[in-house]
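hiii so um. not sure if this is the right channel but i have a protein structure encoded as C-alpha cells and i wanna go backwards to a sequence. like what aa goes where. can anyone help
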C-alpha cells in the first residue's frame, strides 16, 4: 500500500526502478537498497522507484490474472523503466530474480531482449560469483555502489541504443557486461572512505512492520580479523570508519527525518571500532535528548569483559564463537579460548543480560564429531552460567564454502551429513535450546555460490520447475533442487583448479588465500593486521586504522529525567483512502514517529523505556475509513495550536489528515473512555431496504437513516462489537462498498449527543 514517509515523488529524468527480489518486509529493511536509493536521488537526475517480489499469495493471483508488476511509488509498470536495478544480498534470491523477470514479461535471457526492454542491472554482496546469473542480467556493478555506480547509471539511462550502452558500460571499472565479457578481470569496487554525503539520512519509513524497523547508520565497513570462512571480510578490505562526530550527526539527522524510535548501527565488528568510548558517549547524549534506542550488532566475546556499562547487555546478547572447540576456532582463525568465552558470558550474566544467543557452524573443514560435540558442551556451559531463568540458544548454520575466502577450495559435506552433525548437537545439548538452518537450503546456496558454466541452465530449470522463495522454509522446493544439484554436485576444488569466479579481482591475493588455506589445516592463526601488522593480503596499501580501546564504558550518565507536561492537545484526524487498511497498531506507531518528526516538545514517560503518552479513540476495524479519529498527547512546553498543527501536518504520511484540534485544560477524560456513540456512513449498499428491515427488527443501533438511495447513516455504540456496521450488514446479508466513521459522539450536559471535540 505504500503510505510510507520520506518518499520523494518530484524527481524527474529517466525512470530507474530499484528492486530487492524478496518481499517488502525484508526488502524495505535492506541497507544496500537504502544506500543506492539515496545515491541516485542525490543526483536529481533520475526518477527513482522501488519494487519488491510480491508475496506468494499475491504472486499467484498476479500470474492467474496476468497482472502487471507495479512500482511502489506510483503504481507504474516496472517493465517500462529505463533501468531495473536488482540488489542481490545472497545467492538464495537468484530464483526470485528470474521470477521477477518473468513477472515483467521480458525474456529471461539477455540475448533475447530488444531495444524496448529495460536494461537489467544487478549489484550486491550476493554476486561474489555472478556466473549463475550472467545470461539473465545485462550489466553487473560489482562491489560498493559509492565507488562507481553513478557513472554507469549515466550511460545506462542515456538515449544511446542498447548495444552502444552495453559497450560503453563494459569499459567502466567494476562493471561486468556478460554478453561482452571475454574472461578479462573485473575489480570488485571498494570505496576509499565512508563519505558522510553518501550515507542515507532521509530513509523511507514504512507503514507496515518490516524486518528491521529502524533507521540505520553504518559506522564502519570492512573487518581484518580474518575469519577464514567470512566472505564479507575479504570483499571489504581494508577497514574504513566514520568519525564519531559524523556518526552522531547521521543518527541525529536521520531520527529527526524519519521519527524512528530506534536506530541501528551497522558494522562487521562493532567492538573493533577504534574510537568506541567517544562514540558511546555520543550514543548516550542522543538517547538522553531524543528518547530513541540505539542498538548495536553482536559483540566479539573477547571484547566483552572490557565493556563497562549496561548498554552492552540490554536484553539478549549475541555472540559468535562459530565453532565449539579451540582447535576448530584456530582452524577458522577465530582463536577465542574457552576461558575467554566463559569470561564473556560471566560478564554478561553479571551485567544483567536476559539471555544469550550463540552462533555456531557445522561442516567446517577438518571438523570431527568431537568438535561438533564441543558445540553442545560449550552451549550447555553457557546455559549453566546464565541459569534456568535466562534463555540460551545455540543457533547452528551449515558451513557454506564461499568464493574469495581461504576456504573457497573446500567441499561442503552432503546435506545428510550436515543434518547428522546438527542432530549430534541437538541430542547432546541438555540445557541450551538449539536452533538450526536447513542444510538443504545451504546445499542450494553452496551450489549457486560456487556455480560454474552449467549453473545458469540448472538455475533456469529449477525456476521453471517451480523453485522460488528458496529462503522461505515453507516455500523451499527441495524436490526440485535435489534432482538438479545431484547431477552437478560440487566437489570442492584443487588449489590449481581454475575457479569459476577467479575473474573477479577483490584485491586480496590468490597466494595469500592459499597460504591462509594451508595455515588453517596446521591450526595456525593469523592475527588481525591492525594488531600484528600487515600480512600483505593485497587488500590495501598496508596503512590501517588503530586497534580499538580495550576498556569501553557505556551509559556514563543515567538518562536525565524528562520535563514534566505543561499542556494537553486533542487532535481529530481522518484516516482515508488506502490508509483505512492500516491496522490500529501500525497507526499508533505512525503517530509516534510523526510526532517525533514534528520536533514538538512532546512529553515522554520517565523510567527505563521512555515512551510518548498517546491516547486514542476506540480503534476501528481494518478496512474502515474514518473522518473522526482522536488523539491526545502532552507537551512539555507551551506551543501555539497553530504551530502544533503546522508541525504535525507537514510530517504525516498520505491518507492521514488533521481535521480539528483543541487544547484541553483542567480535568479531562480520554477520548476512548468518553465516546458513547459513533456515527457511520455506509456507501454503495446493494439493498438498502433489506438493511432497513433488518435494523427495524433488531435493535442494534440507536438511530439510522437512508440518503442518496445507497447510503445509510447509522449511530451505534462503538464499544459494542455487535453493533459494528460491517457485522450488521453481514448479518443482514447486504453488500456495501465502504464504511466511514464520520463522527464520535458524546452526551453533553443536556444529554444531547454532540461531536467529541465539543466537550472535554
Ligand atoms: S594489505 Fe595488509 S594491512 Fe591491508 S588489509 Fe591486507 S593484511 Fe591488512
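sure thing!! here u go:
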Amino acid at each position: 500500500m505504500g503510505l510510507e514517509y520520506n518518499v520523494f515523488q518530484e524527481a524527474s529524468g529517466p525512470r530507474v526502478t530499484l528492486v530487492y527480489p524478496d518481499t517488502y518486509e525484508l526488502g524495505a529493511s535492506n541497507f544496500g537498497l537504502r544506500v543506492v536509493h539515496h545515491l541516485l536521488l542525490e543526483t536529481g537526475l533520475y526518477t527513482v522507484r522501488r519494487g519488491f517480489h510480491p508475496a506468494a499469495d499475491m504472486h499467484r493471483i498476479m500470474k492467474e490474472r496476468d497482472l502487471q508488476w507495479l512500482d511502489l511509488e506510483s503504481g507504474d509498470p516496472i517493465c517500462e523503466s529505463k533501468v531495473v536495478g536488482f540488489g542481490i544480498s545472497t545467492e538464495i534470491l537468484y530464483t526470485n530474480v528470474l521470477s521477477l523477470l518473468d513477472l515483467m514479461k521480458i525474456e529471461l535471457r539477455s540475448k533475447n531482449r530488444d531495444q524496448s526492454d529495460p536494461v537489467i542491472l544487478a549489484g550486491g554482496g550476493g554476486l561474489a560469483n555472478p556466473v549463475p546469473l550472467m545470461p539473465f542480467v545485462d550489466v553487473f556493478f560489482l562491489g560498493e555502489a559509492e565507488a562507481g555506480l553513478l557513472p554507469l547509471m549515466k550511460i545506462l539511462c542515456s538515449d544511446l541504443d542498447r548495444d552502444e550502452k552495453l559497450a560503453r558500460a563494459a569499459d567502466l571499472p567494476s562493471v561486468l557486461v556478460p554478453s561482452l565479457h571475454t574472461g578479462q578481470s573485473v575489480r570488485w569496487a571498494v570505496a576509499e572512505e565512508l563519505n558522510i554525503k553518501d550515507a542515507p539520512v532521509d530513509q523511507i519509513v514504512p507503514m507496515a512492520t518490516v524486518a528491521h524497523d529502524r533507521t540505520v547508520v553504518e559506522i564502519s565497513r570492512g573487518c581484518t580479523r580474518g575469519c577464514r570462512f567470512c566472505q564479507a571480510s575479504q570483499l571489504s578490505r581494508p577497514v574504513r570508519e566514520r568519525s564519531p562526530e559524523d556518526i552522531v550527526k547521521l543518527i541525529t539527522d536521520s531520527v529527526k527525518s524519519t521519527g524512528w524510535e530506534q536506530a541501528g548501527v551497522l558494522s562487521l565488528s562493532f567492538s573493533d571500532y577504534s574510537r568506541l568510548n567517544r562514540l558511546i558517549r555520543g550514543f548516550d547524549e542522543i538517547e538522553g535528548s531524543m528518547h530513541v534506542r540505539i542498538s548495536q550488532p553482536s559483540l566479539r566475546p573477547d571484547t566483552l569483559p572490557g565493556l563497562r556499562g549496561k548498554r552492552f547487555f540490554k536484553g539478549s546478547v549475541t555472540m559468535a564463537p562459530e565453532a565449539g572447540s579451540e582447535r576448530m576456532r584456530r582452524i577458522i582463525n577465530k582463536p577465542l579460548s574457552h576461558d575467554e568465552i566463559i569470561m564473556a558470558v560471566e560478564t554478561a550474566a553479571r551485567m544483567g543480560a536476559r539471555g544469550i544467543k550463540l552462533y555456531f557452524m557445522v561442516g567446517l573443514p577438518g571438523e570431527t564429531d568431537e568438535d561438533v560435540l564441543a558445540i553442545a558442551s560449550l552451549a550447555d556451559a553457557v546455559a549453566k552460567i546464565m541459569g534456568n531463568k535466562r534463555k540460551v540458544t545455540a543457533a547452528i548454520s551449515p558451513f557454506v564454502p564461499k568464493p574469495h575466502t581461504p576456504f573457497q577450495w573446500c567441499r561442503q559435506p552432503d546435506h545428510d551429513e550436515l543434518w547428522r552433525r546438527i542432530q549430534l548437537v541437538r541430542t547432546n545439548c541438555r540445557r541450551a535450546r538449539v536452533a538450526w538452518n536447513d542444510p538443504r537450503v545451504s546445499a542450494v546456496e553452496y551450489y549457486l555460490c560456487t556455480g560454474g558454466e552449467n549453473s545458469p541452465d540448472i538455475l533456469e530449470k529449477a525456476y521453471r520447475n517451480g523453485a522460488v522463495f528458496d529462503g522461505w522454509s515453507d516455500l523451499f522446493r527441495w524436490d526440485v533442487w535435489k534432482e538438479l544439484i545431484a547431477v552437478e554436485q560440487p566437489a570442492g576444488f584443487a588449489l590449481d583448479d581454475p575457479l569459476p569466479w577467479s575473474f573477479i579481482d577483490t584485491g586480496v591475493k590468490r597466494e595469500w588465500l592459499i597460504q591462509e588455506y594451508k595455515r588453517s589445516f596446521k591450526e595456525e592463526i593469523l592475527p588481525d593486521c591492525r594488531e600484528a601488522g600487515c600480512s600483505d593480503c593485497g587488500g590495501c596499501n598496508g596503512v590501517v586504522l588503530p586497534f580499538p580501546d580495550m576498556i569501553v564504558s557505556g551509559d556514563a550518565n543515567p538518562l536525565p529525567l524528562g520535563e514534566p507536561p505543561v499542556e494537553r492537545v486533542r487532535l481529530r484526524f481522518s484516516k482515508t483512502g488506502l490508509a483505512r487498511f492500516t491496522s490500529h497498531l501500525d497507526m499508533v506507531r505512525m503517530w509516534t514517529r510523526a510526532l517525533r518528526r514534528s520536533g514538538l516538545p512532546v512529553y515522554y514517560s520517565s523510567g527505563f523505556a521512555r515512551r510518548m503518552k498517546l491516547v486514542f479513540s476506540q480503534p476501528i476495524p481494518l478496512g474502515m475509513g474514518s473522518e473522526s479519529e482522536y488523539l491526545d498527547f502532552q507537551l512539555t512546553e507551551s506551543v501555539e495550536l497553530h504551530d502544533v498543527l503546522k508541525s504535525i501536518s507537514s510530517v504525516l504520511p498520505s491518507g492521514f489528515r488533521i481535521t480539528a484540534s483543541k487544547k484541553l485544560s483542567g480535568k479531562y477524560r480520554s477520548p476512548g473512555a468518553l465516546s458513547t456513540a459513533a456515527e457511520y456512513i455506509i456507501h454503495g449498499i446493494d439493498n438498502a431496504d433489506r438493511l432497513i428491515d433488518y435494523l427495524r427488527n433488531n435493535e442494534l443501533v440507536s438511530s439510522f437513516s437512508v440518503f442518496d438511495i445507497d447510503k445509510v447513516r447509522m449511530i451505534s455504540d462503538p464499544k459494542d462489537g455487535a453493533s459494528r456496521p460491517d457485522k450488521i450488514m453481514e448479518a443482514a446479508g447486504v453488500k456495501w462498498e465502504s464504511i466511514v466513521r464520520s463522527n464520535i459522539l458524546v452526551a453533553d450536559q443536556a444529554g444531547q449527543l454532540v461531536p467529541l471535540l465539543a466537550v472535554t
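oh and DSSP finds 23 helices and 28 strands in the chain.
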